[in-house]
Amino acid sequence: MKNFKRLLIRTLLLLILAGVTLSLLMVVPFRWINPPYTMVMADRWLSSEDSFYLHQHWLSWEQIPKQTALAVVTSEDQRFPMHRGFDFDAIVSAVKAASRGRELRGASTISQQVAKNMYLWTGRSWLRKGLEVWFTLLIELTWGKQRILEVYLNIAEWGNGVFGLEAASRYHFSKPAAQLTPMQSALLASTLPSPLNYNPAQPEQHLIDRARWNLQQQKKLGGTAWLTPLQ
After folding, report:
1. Residue 168: Cβ-neighbour burial (10 angstroms; 0-12, 13-18, 19+)
2. Which strand (E) or helix (H) includes residue 167?
3. Is the dihedral of CA 106, 112, 118, 124 positive or negative?
4. Cα gap 155→40, rounded to integer Å
5. Tens-digit pLDDT profile for the chain (231 aa)?
6. 39-230: what fold?
7. Burial of 171 from C-beta contacts in 10 A (0-12 / 13-18 / 19+)
8. CA 194, CA 199: separation in Å to the nearest integer?
């Protein structure tokens, strides 16, 4: 009986060690290597009834317009430079809003969205949530904020088969990201995290209002200088 318990404990420890090692191998290399695809891309390809064409062009951190980076952080995760992967204030606020009968709004940080987009399947389960937490922690510990935001801006979905800022700019506005106006950047940012439901090139009033709010918030944050700690 003792031998069986020892064997069981040893097996569990080996499985845990193998899982940790595998996950590190899945995360750490992308600190330097640009990921060729994500789980979201794979899911869109597998679920597509018609031919699927991937639009993506990677921009390095130096090539990313900081105005657009600020617009996205303003829209998606204003505490991104400060938190360590999880915004507990946003989580509490979302729960309180839901308890008052308001629509439950997601409180996922940019780091969590990178973890989900890159490594996890669609759907909801406790297993998926646990893996999301684990991969988020690994990404935060090994990549750094600048790399996390760079990856997010290159893998975020902005339309059917459209991934990343450069592809989104060319697809919606027929221009490279470097030529986006502040309003166009705010419109793109305001479509997240439901990019398939909005058209930033032909925005409805609701989207225009969100973009204007985004521009106002950028000023309150201090403009692109607010991103300086990431560099």
Report:
1. buried
2. helix 165-173
3. negative
4. 9
5. 677 777 778 888 888 888 889 999 999 999 999 999 999 999 988 887 777 888 999 999 999 999 999 999 999 999 999 888 887 776 666 555 555 555 555 579 999 999 999 999 888 899 999 999 999 999 999 999 999 999 999 999 999 999 999 999 999 999 999 999 999 999 999 999 789 999 999 999 999 999 999 999 999 999 999 888 776
6. Penicillin binding protein transpeptidase fold (1.10.3810)
7. middle
8. 10
* Sign of the Cα pseudo-torsion (181, 185, 191, 196, in order): positive
Beta bridge partners of 55: 162
Tell me the C-alpha distance between 172 and 200, whole Å.
Answer: 7
Cα(first)–Cα(last) distance of the chain, in Å? 57
Q: Which residues, 6 or more positions from 172, have their beta carbon under 8 angstroms from its beta carbon?
A: 158, 159, 162, 188, 199, 200, 201
CB atoms within 10 A of CB 86: 18
| Predicted structure pTM score | 0.90
Q: How far apart are CA 20 and CA 230, in angstroms?
A: 27
Backbone angles phi, psi at 175, to 5 degrees: -155, 155
What are the domain boundaries of the chain?
Answer: 39-230
